[in-house]
């Protein structure tokens, strides 16, 4: 029955501008949904989700893992990218083809045709989890954009400016939405408000976010 509706009224992607250099491609990940979910299961079997500790000593409410040549990590000594998962002592699982394909196509759509990610940070939010305002600046070459894919429960994305105190705009990120973000807004402060409880038909009581980066 679902397939029938899809054929009669296919879900169309659409484009919104978030800021100079930042585009929101609504629903762009929907055609990849089943492949992404299967690939995610493979990744977490090798490098499970874990809640990392910030340099300040706080345990993050968001659970994380990575795939690709490098992974983003934090511990008491700082934030960085590492080729080795500190929990397993082995390399992070390779980036699945469907991850790479989605990231490259979305980046090209958004005006970044050169983007080839070498790292994907996978964030898992359960109800109550949040990510406070931050900048993504551990990547070596900030000329690369970031491609960010939202799956599962909806979340409120907070998007500020170059200074921590700049006014913050809010965007509702829903299942399948892809944000591509670079150029003049690459270093803008951003965060995710506390996740509200809910039940997503495929992902249950969680939100998964994939952020693809050129890290090395
Ligand atoms: C999230 N995303 O959506 C967290 N960073 O769960 C990020 O922190 C992020 O979505 C840089 C660019 C895009 C993002
Ligand atoms: Fe970020």
Structure commentary:
Helices cover 16% and strands 34% of the residues. With 216 residues, it is α+β, with helices and mostly antiparallel strands. The protein has one domain (2-213): Jelly Rolls, CATH 2.60.120. The strands form four sheets. It has a seven-stranded antiparallel β-sheet, with helices on one face. A four-stranded antiparallel β-sheet has the order 9-14-11-12, with no helix packed on it. It has a two-stranded antiparallel sheet with strand order 4-5. The chain is globular and about 55 Å long. It starts with a helix and ends with a strand. The relative contact order is 0.22.
By CATH, the topology is Jelly Rolls
Low-pLDDT regions: none
N-C termini distance: 45 Å
Strand content: 25-35%
Q: Please, what is the CATH homologous superfamily?
A: Alpha-ketoglutarate-dependent dioxygenase AlkB-like
Using the CA coordinates, give the radius of gyration.
16 Å
CATH class, named Mainly Beta
The CATH architecture? Sandwich
Number of helices: 3
User: What is the makeup of the main sheet?
Assistant: 7 strands, antiparallel
Offer a few descriptive terms.
single chain, 216 residues, alpha+beta, Jelly Rolls, seven-stranded antiparallel β-sheet, four-stranded antiparallel β-sheet, 3 helices, 15 strands, 34% strand, binds N-[(3-hydroxypyridin-2-yl)carbonyl]glycine, binds fe (iii) ion
């Amino acid at each position: 029955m679902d397939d029938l509706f899809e054929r009669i009224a296919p879900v169309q992607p659409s484009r919104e501008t978030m800021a100079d250099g930042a585009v929101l491609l609504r629903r762009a990940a929907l055609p990849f949904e089943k492949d992404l979910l299967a690939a995610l299961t493979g990744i977490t079997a090798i490098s499970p989700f874990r809640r990392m500790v910030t340099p300040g000593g706080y345990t993050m409410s968001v659970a994380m893992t990575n795939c690709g040549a490098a992974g983003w990590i934090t511990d008491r000594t700082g934030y960085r990218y590492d080729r080795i998962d500190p929990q397993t002592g082995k390399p992070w699982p390779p980036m699945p083809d469907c991850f790479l394909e989605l990231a490259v196509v979305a980046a090209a759509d958004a005006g970044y045709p050169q983007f080839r990610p070498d790292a994907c940070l996978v964030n898992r939010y359960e109800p109550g989890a949040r990510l406070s305002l931050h900048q993504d600046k551990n990547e070596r070459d900030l000329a690369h954009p970031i491609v960010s894919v939202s799956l599962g429960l909806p979340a409120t994305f907070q998007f500020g400016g170059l200074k921590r105190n700049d006014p913050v705009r809010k965007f509702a990120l829903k299942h399948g939405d892809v944000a591509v973000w670079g150029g003049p807004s690459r270093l803008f402060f951003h965060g995710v408000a506390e996740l509200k409880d809910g039940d997503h038909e495929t992902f249950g009581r969680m939100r998964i976010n994939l952020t693809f980066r050129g890290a090395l």
